[in-house]
Amino acid sequence: MNIKRKTFLKGMAATGALFAVNGPIFNSLALAKTSSSSDGKWLPTSCQGCTTWCPAEVFVQNGRAVKVKGNRYSKQNDGVLCPKGHLALKELYDPDRVKVPMKRTNPKKGKGVDPKFVPISWDEALNTIADKMMELRKNGEPEKFLLMRGRYSYMRDSIYAALPKVFGSPNGISHSSICAEAEKFGAFYTAGNWGYRDYDLSNSKYVLIWGCDPLSSNRMIPATIKRFGDMLDQATVTVVDPKLQSSSAKAHEWLPIKPGEDGALASAIAHVLLTEGLWNKEFVGDFNAGKNLFVAGKKVDESAFTEKETFGLVKWWNIELKDKTPSWAAEKTLITEEQIHRVARGLAKAAPYVTVWLGPGAAMHVRGGYSAMAVHALSGLLGSIDHEGGVLATAKIPVKKFPSFSKYQDALAKKHSKKPKIDQRGTKKFPALKNGKSGGGVVTDNTANAILQDDPYQIKMAIGYMNNFTFSGTGAERWEKAMEKVPFFAHITTNAAEMTQYADIVLPSTITQFEKMGFVKTKANRYATATLILPVVKPFWDVKMDETEIPWLIAEKLKQRGFSNLLDFFQNEFKDPETKKKPTNGIEFTEYNLKNQTAPLWDGKKDVGGDKLNGWQDFKEHGMWNSSPYKFKKRWGGKFKTATHKFEFYSETLKTALGKHAKKHKTNIDDILKITNYEARGELAFVPHYEAPYRHGSLSEYPFDFIDFKSKLNREGRSQNLPWYYEFKKMDVGDMSWDDVLQINPIDAENLGIKEGDSIKVTSTVASILVNAHLWEGVRPGTVAKCYGQGHWAYGRFAAKDYQNAVPRGGNNNLLMPNDYDRLSGSSARNGGFTGVKIEKV
Amino acid sequence: MAKIKYTMVIDLQKCVGCGACAIACKTENNTQDSNGVHSYNWSDFTFKKEGKFPDVKYAAIPVLCNHCDEPACMEGCPEPKALYKTDDGITMYNYRYCVQCRKCFEGKTACPYSSPDLSKTDAQYSVISFNEPGTTTHPFYSDKKALIQGGTGSPAEMSMKVNALPPDKHEYSYKDRMKPEAGQKTRGKGKLADVRADGWVEKCTFCIHRVRDGLNPYCVDACPSNARIFGDRNDANSEVTLLLKKHKPKRLKNNKGEFLGANEKGTGPNVFYIRDFKPQSKNA
Fold first, then answer.
1. Interchain pair B22, A506: CB under 8 A
2. Is position A295 within any domain?
3. Does A281 contact chain B (CB < 8 Å)?
4. Who has the most CB within 10 Å: A100, A104, A796, B10?
């Protein structure tokens, strides 16, 4: 019966038969009637509750969205979603959504100061914004305009790149480095890809999850959930994480590492693999004479070893690994020598069918770029890079690049958009070496400091969309002060968030998954995917699409004021690829823009592999495109995008990048390492290595290491206004429903005289929060853990305890965590025990 | 032909405790938010936590109505019984006969998986929830207060705007198989399609509206780990039968996470659990 039907559909999807010669089965037709008693249509779109970016479907009845599931054609989620997907409905029907544009009538700005918002028309809102923009151009200072991007789709370039740069500002500032860049640093400076990895979990024989819970977060949630139960049969599953979470609760082995000591564990595992001759010979190569010369404490002659797909193994051994014994690491990590040996040998036995899953917990430390490299280098030693059952890059998604807007930039725009960006990237103390380039990446959180310092210049006007940096940035109070200082701020948002409280103009935006049009790229399970975001219901409030419709409307207003360049660009470069018609309004612009970018996937002009789509309508009906599976060993044979084209254990790529950055600042690399707060000097800076964790707060005054973790139910920071979030908060291991708790080991609690449920004050070097204590054995004595998400003092009636008086419900981890960075990547520090806290009963 | 005996098997090794089933159930069945006394979660979880750091054991166990062979809820229900068994084994509720005596979830004859007041028990869930007489269902959407006058909406406005309670209400209906006999007196009010009204008891129906159409209960289809398997235990070749043969199944004893002993029958639950949240042993 039912089961057969489900299997049937899945089977069809797996074989690609849904795109058979007899013609496609459309989403809207295939299950138009799931039930005689439940009429409606499943319509495709995408879930943006986290960065998995799942292809999804929404069940629509009488114009209302009532249920959500995965897209039936997806080879990643196979038609099912994690809990976040289902929560999305309540975000659409959140009663606290902003219904209409608003303006501030109280000029005073500050936390807890009522902006006295009043509704206005779109016309008035846009006129005000355009007037302010034109004033900057008139004064010859367009660089003082700042565009802040939060959660985005690949429609982003209209608002994030074209709008500021055609106008004359370099300042499109993304949120990227508040959540991830250090992780990408690890992959880039070993394997040459600045991005997230994919993992072939179905074929792994050993899965080592490091610094994340992939059942809760980290970019391939449903694909991991689906495979986890079978993985426990077919593989050894081990989790490195200071706190017990879902995957470690299910895993065969849990390594509750002391926060920040990930580099020590990684180096010690590498040490065991080498001293015991357990590296993968096919990938790494071997000693010329066949005899293993890696003996603890002893240097090795580089010429004695011939490498295959890798570069610098012996250098790495000599510079870093030879003394990094398990007994050395056991002291640092509090993981026993025996366990380190067992894991290393287990990995080697399963290699190369090994997944070492590098998560943010191993990377987003002050100095964490190097531990990210150390963890990722294990995949090199084990030969699992691009190997079946191993760690993969992404199959290509052949969409078109955003068209060039340079010919629409006038002299003023050309000159001023080349000024340094506000976030101080590329300055001496912020190398932010994305893709090997000094200042190549964003330093999101430093934007607040730069605004406060007017360095490199004052920001006079800002627009932000889908961002809430006053809540999501570390050292959140800095952002509050910075936003107070910006003279004019327009916020494009769904809810009156913390950031919105500083806005002069509020522009209500669509809810991505249900009301917007765009697309995102994603991957999992060897397949890369382009998935459409489609308006499955009509907006019921006066809201507009953030990334395309609103910049179009601003462009129209700028034209009315004599500056037509942006609108000219939008009109001329985004013709409908089928009819060649120019867009005449923001909605047409959105659709033509989307069609242009995705045309190679559906126009049939060139075989791009993967799903065969029969035109735009067909794409819209499927809602997504799957690539062909990623080809194993794709980068083997010298095709890594590193300086040596090999997998680098000695990173010539990093050496070059650091050298260029030092040269730019007329100094040497050691000086850069010193000013950016790393311990390494000399050659150590070019290999994956251990750096002692950097901690804010002395052990005597702030005795506990604070661990920030992510909820299964966090639709990024956006689900805290939904009652179901609180009802099911208990699904986060060690958390409680309808509460925001600090998880504390009973031994520590007893010493502090704290009992279950006590109200406590948690204080770091920068701020305090009030939460409740939950006594729980899943955290190591000396560490305390709290989930990110609660502590909103605005956003809505459930998110805040008292919206009118800015009283938070629970506590925001970002208040506690000081503003610091892994400066080589530009990443904000969030993990690695960098926040010392003290706890008092109140 | 043997009668159908609907059964659910929950594979705890596959379950990752994500909660998708519980939330998806709420979207399917329009259940309201917890009021602290009643959860209104037809699909929910109980947890087991044992041991000391670092040897800590944690298990999430998905729970729902066990659709027992000898349901206690039905035992105590006065004649004519509002709670009844369908021919295929689903435990259903007929509001027409309900006298609001509360015996199905309170007192000696209550369902062992239910509690009359979740704020006064260490039980983590209740299969049966009750809509107290005189209360409003989905009271959240009665609130007319907006945070920003004219700028943001209110729950009541939201619900009216899309003409649905709740605004994401999934419209569905099913036929009650047990019609009152001619002349028989019935009680209660409200429309059957609403699933609930004040004075009604409510609980999981095994998604009878879907099952009657040949579909799985929604929690089964929504589970991202394929941990839930639904089928006919009287069919020797069904997946549920095969799984129950292959593994040593367990059944819940109460709503405190305890399982029935090997020789205990309890009320004859038809929801079975196989394997463990954390595998028993492995050459780690």
1. no
2. yes
3. no
4. B10
